[in-house]
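Open question from group meeting: does this chain pack into something compact, or does most of it stay loose? Before anyone orders reagents, we agreed to write out a predicted structure and look at it together. Recording both the input and the output here so the notebook holds the full record.
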Amino acid sequence: MGRSFWAGGWMAVVVLALATACVAMVQEVVAQVVDRDTVRINGITVDPASSLADAERAAKHAAVRRMLDRRGSAAVPAQVRRAAEGAAAELVSTRRILNAEPTNGLYQPAFYFDVDMSRIDRMIQTANSQSLDDYGLRPRMLVAVSVSQLPKAFNTDADRARFSKAATDVVGERARRAGFEVIDPGDSLRALVRSSAPAEQIQQEMYKDPSAEYFIVGEIGLSDRNLRSRDGGAYYVAAADVAVRTTDTVNRNIVPSSRNVEGTGETDDLAVRSAVDNASRLIIDKMNAPDLLESFKLNFKRGIEWEIRMCTGWRGAGAFMAKIKEKYQVVGGGGNRVSEIYKVTSPPGKFVHPYNILDNIRQEVAETLGYREIQILPQVLDGVRRFAISDDPRCVQ
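Structure tokens returned:
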């Protein structure tokens, strides 16, 4: 009789325990559904620690890293990662600890955490919403627009130079207002624009500039056949052929585009002016400044890439590369007997225009090794910003 009682009591205890466990499981499921801003991590463990508090602290940091990794490395700026890990104690709350007793004096429990993802997402959003001005940074752009042809009545050197300057100024001013630092073109480039040189020639001259990340080349042409009167001379219509080439050395690409636009006016002169104005606006649209700035910001946060072509066989090459590696992440690439190509990445969230750094290193190496001249030649090849470096002018050409 007694034995039957104890058996029944034992069964009752088991049933009660199972019921309690089932209730607990239901409560956890309900909590996961209701609290949409919280992510639950179950059973996270870390290396053995000397105290339970140390193990919990390390596990919370690991939980934050795991949640940030789920958002993707490109979406999470480095400063957010540092801030989130620093605030791990507030972002992560402990629901349960299993195996909390030490083994041989060391603690390695399993932690069950709730992570405040709403706060982490706000941190990411705030960082990503910062403008480049918040970093004190304006990417540099060089702009040149050439009006290569005008209707016969206006097709003098002076007219083409006047329209070219006006179009370049309009595009440059719009780029400046958008958030770029627009670089002064210099005498050589200005002379090419004034002379209505071909866009390809202008572009090659632009690439000699050592500091720009972006190059905008526009070419506008209006021929006699594209200028017509309408309604018996009541007004005129002028059509312009527009070609634009955007060189983006940050994303290492060149984007060409072309289109035809029209302008109207009460006189043929006003129609031509209107067509050039509309062509300038088209160049501004094709420049796509908001996308360029957003892309620059993203690359700035993860590190902007560029290249060095180091000519071999001169005494200062090793010293020069050693100083570059002190400041940048450098990966050696292919080359030949004359030169080696290196890919260089700026530190994430930090950017100094490469030529400024290279010019400082040039002076240091020259003073240390007694060089009178070290050549640095800026280049852009297939959209890639590159600097050729040597003490021999023949190598860097």
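Observations to bring back to the group:
Confidence is low (pLDDT under 50) at residues 1-35.
The first strand starts at residue 38 and ends at 44.
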